[in-house]
Amino acid sequence: MGNQLFQAARDAVRNVLNGREHSSSEHNEHSMSIAKNALSSAYANSSEAEKAQLHELQEELFSNNQKKH
Fold first, then answer.
1. What are the respective helix, strand and coil percentages of the chain, to the nearest 5?
2. How many folded domains does the chain comprise?
3. What was the pLDDT predicted at 26?
4. Residue range of the domain that includes 51
């Protein structure tokens, strides 16, 4: 069984990245908040390899967010 917090964080980031063009600003902000919280929770309970992947997801999330503003 994999790290469920890691999987939830990955899914939350993907939801933000995939839904950004098709959703309202309010929905995007809510999705971004969920993704940030999921990343934070997952990071505290992850292996070093998972932490590296979470860092990449975080960079991707914030890079994409900067492009949209």
1. 85, 0, 15
2. 1
3. 75
4. 4-68
Using a 10 angstrom Cβ sphere, with 0-12 exposed, 13-18 middle and 19 or more buried, the burial of residue 59 is exposed
Q: Identify the pLDDT of residue 18.
A: 87
pLDDT tens for residues 4-51? 999 999 999 999 998 866 667 777 888 999 999 999 999 988 999 999
**What is the spatial distance between Cα 39 and Cα 61, in angstroms, rounded to a whole number?**
10
Provide CB contacts within 8 A for 21, sequence distance 6+.
none
Residue 32 near residue 65 (C-beta atoms within 8 A): yes
